[in-house]
C-alpha cells in the first residue's frame, strides 16, 4: 500500500479536518490507534541525543533507539543507562553498503554469503548486550531500511524475533514492525518535513492501519540529522498525540 503525498496547496486546517475525520472512523470501528517511535544511527552520546532523550521523557514516549554496533561507543550506553523509555536495537553492523556500483545501498543483502551477514548481526547483538549491560530489543533495524528476503527470513538465527524497515508490507515469515512516517525529506536536501506534509502522511497511514484492523504506525527520526524544522515537527507530533485521548504510544517490542 502506498501513501499519497499532499497537494502543495493543501492547508494545515484541511489536514486537521482529515485527521479528525479519520480518528472518528477509528472510534466508530471500536479501535484505538497505536504509535511507536524509532530513531536511527545512534553511535555516541551527543547533544542531539540528549535533546531526543529530553523530548521522549517530557512526552513519556518509549523509544526504539537503533544503534550501529561496530562503531558504537561506551559513552552512548552510559548516557541511556537509566532511561526506562529507551530500548537499544541493532542497526546493521557497520552501516556500510556492500552493493555493487549502480545498485541501491544495502548492508543486509546477498552480495556476501548470508552466513557472514548473520554472523555480523549476531556479533553486533552480543556487543550491544555487553555494552548496555541489559536486555536489548529483539527487533533488527536494517540500515537504509533495506534487507534481502533471504536474510530477513533467517534473522532468528542471529537472535532476532522481528525486523523494522519502512512502509506497509504483506505477511512475511518474520514479524515486520515497520516505520511509516519519516520527519526528514532526504531527497529534498535532508531537511525537516513541514507539518502539513507530516500530518497528512499520518492521516493517510491511519486510514491504511484502520483498514488492516488497527495495525501500529511507526514514526521515524534521525536525531543526528535533524535541523530545527525536524525537531519542531517531531515535537508537534508528540504534542498532537498527547491531546488525542484515543492514541497510545507503545514500546516497539510489545508489538512483536
Please describe what this structure looks like.
There is one protein chain. With 256 residues, the protein is of the alpha/beta class. It has one domain: Alpha-Beta Barrel (TIM Barrel), CATH 3.20.20.370. Helix content is 36%, strand content 15%. It contains seven helices and eleven strands. The chain has helices at residues 12-28, 47-59, 74-79, 114-132, 149-152, 195-211, 228-242, and strands at 34-42, 63-67, 86-90, 139-140, 162-163, 175-176, 181-182, 184-185, 191-192, 217-221, 248-249. Strand 1, helix 2 and strand 2 form a beta-alpha-beta unit. Helix 1 (12-28) packs parallel to helix 6 (195-211). It is globular and about 50 Å long. The two termini are 21 Å apart.
List the helices and strands and how they pair.
Blueprint: H1 12-28, E1 34-42, H2 47-59, E2 63-67, H3 74-79, E3 86-90, H4 114-132, E4 139-140, H5 149-152, E5 162-163, E6 175-176, E7 181-182, E8 184-185, E9 191-192, H6 195-211, E10 217-221, H7 228-242, E11 248-249
Parallel strand pairs: 1-2, 1-10, 1-11, 2-3, 4-5, 5-6, 7-10
Antiparallel strand pairs: 8-9
Helix pairs in contact: 1-6
Give helix % range: 25-40%
CATH class: Alpha Beta
**CATH topology-level name:** TIM Barrel
> With helices defined by DSSP (H or I, 4 residues minimum), what is the helix count?
7
Number of domains: 1
Question: Which word captures the global form?
Answer: globular
* End-to-end CA span: 21 Å
What is the compact description of this entry?
The protein is α/β, with parallel strands linked by helices and 256 residues long. The chain is built from 7 helices and 11 strands.
Amino acid at each position: 500500500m502506498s501513501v499519497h503525498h499532499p497537494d502543495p496547496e493543501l492547508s494545515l486546517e484541511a489536514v486537521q479536518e482529515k485527521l479528525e475525520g479519520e480518528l472518528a472512523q477509528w472510534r466508530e470501528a471500536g479501535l484505538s490507534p497505536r504509535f511507536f517511535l524509532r530513531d536511527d544511527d545512534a553511535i555516541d552520546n551527543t547533544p542531539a541525543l540528549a535533546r531526543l532523550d529530553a523530548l521522549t521523557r517530557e512526552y513519556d514516549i518509549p523509544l526504539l533507539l537503533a544503534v550501529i554496533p561496530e562503531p558504537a561507543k561506551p559513552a552512548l550506553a552510559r548516557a541511556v543507562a537509566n532511561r526506562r523509555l529507551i530500548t537499544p536495537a541493532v542497526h546493521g553492523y557497520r552501516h556500510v553498503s556492500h552493493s555493487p556500483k549502480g545498485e541501491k545501498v544495502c548492508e543486509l543483502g546477498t552480495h556476501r554469503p548470508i552466513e557472514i551477514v548473520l554472523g555480523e548481526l549476531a556479533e553486533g547483538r552480543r556487543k550491544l548486550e555487553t555494552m548496555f549491560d541489559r536486555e536489548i530489543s529483539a527487533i533488527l533495524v536494517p540500515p537504509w531500511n533495506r534487507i534481502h528476503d533471504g536474510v530477513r527470513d533467517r534473522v532468528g538465527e542471529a537472535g532476532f524475533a522481528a525486523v523494522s524497515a519502512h512502509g506497509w508490507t504483506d505477511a512475511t515469515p518474520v514479524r515486520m514492525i515497520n516505520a511509516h512516517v519519516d520527519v526528514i525529506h532526504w531527497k529534498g536536501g535532508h531537511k525537516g518535513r513541514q507539518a502539513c506534509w507530516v500530518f497528512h502522511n499520518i492521516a493517510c497511514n491511519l486510514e491504511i492501519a484502520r483498514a488492516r484492523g488497527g495495525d501500529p504506525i511507526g514514526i521515524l527520526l534521525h536525531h543526528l540529522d535533524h535541523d530545527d524544522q525536524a525537531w519542531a515537527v517531531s515535537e508537534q507530533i508528540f504534542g498532537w498525540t498527547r491531546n488525542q485521548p484515543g492514541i497510545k504510544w507503545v514500546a516497539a517490542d510489545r508489538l512483536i
